[in-house]
């Protein structure tokens, strides 16, 4: 019996990262799931990330605490209001206040450190440059730059022991295509969470940008949305 290749997968418990985990599993990777409790107002997502990790029977699920509320600058890590009921054309313009400064750079740096310790050359992240909210750290050129940096910044990279690859299988897919892909791979989306500003019970608001994209994706995919909206 051969050992599976290891992969560190960033998991928020949402549609995208959960679909990425299904893709990695289908590709034969042994999964190490990484989540963050970073002071986000939608920390309920961590419960979903735990459910997802259990569902995929990952090798390990690490949750790292980072207090990004001390930095602020985002409606997800401060007391600023989360935008609601924005039309799609408005969502597509500019970088919204839900952008968390340098979040993916911070997350990928932790993933890189863990991957180096695991002697793992593969990191998966569910960034998307089609149905997304204008975040600069979701673009292909950003991922390419980080991957290049990662191979220059690690002992295993410099010694040519491990060539690090950042996998972004969803980057050119619409939300509907992502949901269709996960559905074919057996993902139970009822365990996922997308809302930026859920109720204390974890019910989705239904009106933030993330909820709007999620609802649109399920409708266009022709698959029932299992989300409980308040």
Brief description of this entry?
The protein has one domain: Rossmann fold (3-Layer(aba) Sandwich), CATH 3.40.50. It has 8 helices and 5 strands, in the order βαβαβααβααβαα. α2 links the parallel β2 and β3.
What does the model show?
The structure is a single chain. It is built from eight helices and five strands. The chain has 230 residues and is α/β, with parallel strands linked by helices. The protein has one domain: 3-Layer(aba) Sandwich (Rossmann fold). Strands 3-2-1-4-5 form a five-stranded parallel beta sheet, sandwiched between helices. Helix 1 (15-26) links the parallel strand 1 (5-10) and strand 2 (29-37). Helix 1 (15-26) crosses helix 7 and helix 7 crosses helix 8. The radius of gyration is 17 Å and the shape is globular. The model has no long low-confidence stretch (mean pLDDT 93).
SSE inventory with pairings:
Layout: E1 5-10, H1 15-26, E2 29-37, H2 45-55, E3 60-65, H3 88-91, H4 103-118, E4 122-124, H5 140-153, H6 155-158, E5 165-167, H7 175-184, H8 209-221
Parallel strand pairs: 1-2, 1-4, 2-3, 4-5
Helix pairs in contact: 1-7, 7-8
Provide the domain count: 1
Under CATH, the topology is which?
Rossmann fold
Would you tell me the structural class of the helices and strands? Answer: alpha/beta
Give the strand content.
5-15%
**Distance separating the two termini:** 48 Å
